[in-house]
Amino acid sequence: MYYFRLKYISLVVGCLRGALSLQHQHTRRDALDVASSFAAGTLLFPESCPAAEDTREPPKFRRYPQIRFIAALGDPASGEGSGSEQWSQWKDDPGPRGVYLRNYESKLAKTGISPAGWSFDKDDWWLEEHGLIMSNPEPLLRKRFVKETKEILPYKRYVVTGDREVTTVLTVWEDGRWKLQKGSLYDVTHLPCRSARYTPVEKRTGTCTPSMADRKMFPVRPGADMPPVSGCAKQDYAVLFVLGEEI
Asked: How far is CA 196 from CA 88, 179, 212, 226, 244, in A?
């Protein structure tokens, strides 16, 4: 999940008013630097986003100071579904903080702590398309706290894109439902970013490690499945760029 090209994104799409422009970038790190140049606190004002099962005012969205990433599961052709309780999120780019497979033994296996400081779980680890072992993502938040009323609402909304044609609002509910205001899960998937989670098939410690991966199978082409690893069960995830969230 390290290198990518981020095309010009306009948030004057669907329910969003105002614009967030990201010019062509050679790496995601470049894009994050550009995104960071936007002032924290900048608002995205929806024009016609419907309320999620309530009668409140139309929602407002705040841009993140840098792009975040959702690891999602679901039918690529569908714009809604269930199972978002299995989704996760990286709040920063895990690529530059990752460890290449070729360096696993020397930089990660002995201590379980990466040079960047994150902890490695040898029975539950993530890999991206260039053969970088990544930090494990956090569970995706599916509830929203309203400061003004002190309420906790059973859903949360994000602005997501796949860096192609669709930028839209994603709603995830506490009960695991999810829905896109526009398009399908495929439309908001960034195809060059490939991501998979690896766990032991036999549920025994040490039977599934990055040292068992075939490094010749990397990099992985855009849209392709991640390579299998001997002794591991593999779960591929779609990667969504997250530009902001409802406030």
From this structure: 12, 23, 15, 6, 24
Phi then psi for 48, rounded to 5 degrees?
-140, 20
**Residues with Cβ < 8 Å from 37, sequence gap 6 or more?**
none
**CA Rg value for the chain:** 18
Nearby residues of 146 by Cβ (< 8 Å), 6 or more positions away: 152, 153
Cα dihedral 61, 85, 116, 240 in deg (nearest 10): -50
Q: What is the torsional sign of CA 106, 69, 26, 117?
A: negative
* Phi-psi category of residue 59: left, alpha or beta, with phi > 0 → left and psi -120 to 50 → alpha: beta
Three-state DSSP class for 217?
A: helix
- Confidence label for 57 from pLDDT (cuts 50, 70 and 90): confident
Candidates 49, 46, 19, 44; CA nearest to 181 is 49
The predicted-structure confidence for 109-164, as pLDDT tens digits, reads as follows: 999 999 999 999 999 999 999 999 999 999 999 999 998 899 999 999 999 999 99
Which pLDDT tens digit goes with each residue over 68-79? 999 999 999 999
Instruction: Give me the residue label for tokens 């930089």.
Output: 107
For residue 4, the 8-state DSSP code is -
